Amino acid sequence: MQTVIITGMSGAGKSTAVHILEDIGYYCIDNIPPTLISNFIILCQNSNFALNKIAFVVDARSGELVTHLADEIDMFKKRGNECAVVFLDADDETIIKRYKETRRKHPHAANGRIESGIKFERALLSEIRSRADIVVDTSKLLTKELREKLLTIFESSTRKYEPISVNVVSFGFKRGVPLDCDLMFDVRFMPNPFYDDELRGFTGKDARVADYAMANESSQKFLRKLEDMITFLLPLYAEEGKQSLVVGIGCTGGKHRSVAVAEHLAKFLSQKNYLTSVNHRDLGNE
Predict the structure, then answer these.
(1) Does 61 appear as a known binding residue?
(2) Is Ligase there in the keyword field (predicted)?
(3) 179 with 150, same domain?
């Protein structure tokens, strides 16, 4: 069982670190009293829990209890358990700036002074910091840089990171646009099968409808450019830490053209080995 203990200064990025570890398969428990860590591990080992990667977050929110973490770490490692202690830190100026920006109260700023809270917390965590296997100073790190650093530390060399997933959504503009789209394309310029009496009753999933909408030169040129744009953008989004992308394809009613293009794009991305799903929001709502 791989175990990680995330600790460090308030405002140094522990919440971001937890999200990153969750993304790579860790079961994360936030703000656990240190004395319960060993009991939880024993419970997992003696049960059928399918947990092989666990991350605990322990910090100054536990108050004086956090001082027991050093003893827990020593005891844990003496038992031969695999455990990495990661201490996230940042300089005082950066922490103060982050608290000012979020307008959150520092857990130890009893008198309202963030500076005094930081000073108290550094003293409280000094012994734990000295036991850390990894100390990460996040003062000048962007979220994506912190992500890259933690992935480098914790990603197993035998496991490839999950590629970005893509959900392609077809819709009709007359029913409004989907609110969760990251990218959106309007295909109302394509020939409309609605005006062909033989095709009107079918959907864009039917090859005859798709051929009608996409066979002309303009449609074909658009599809090539769409494929090129999406395949260009996906690695860039993934590099920025994005895990999923929603691509909206819209036509008037969401039955013919948008469905055909969404099916085409989803098939294209699947062939490129992207984890792809397709959803036709307005089919059945005609």
Answers:
(1) yes
(2) no
(3) no
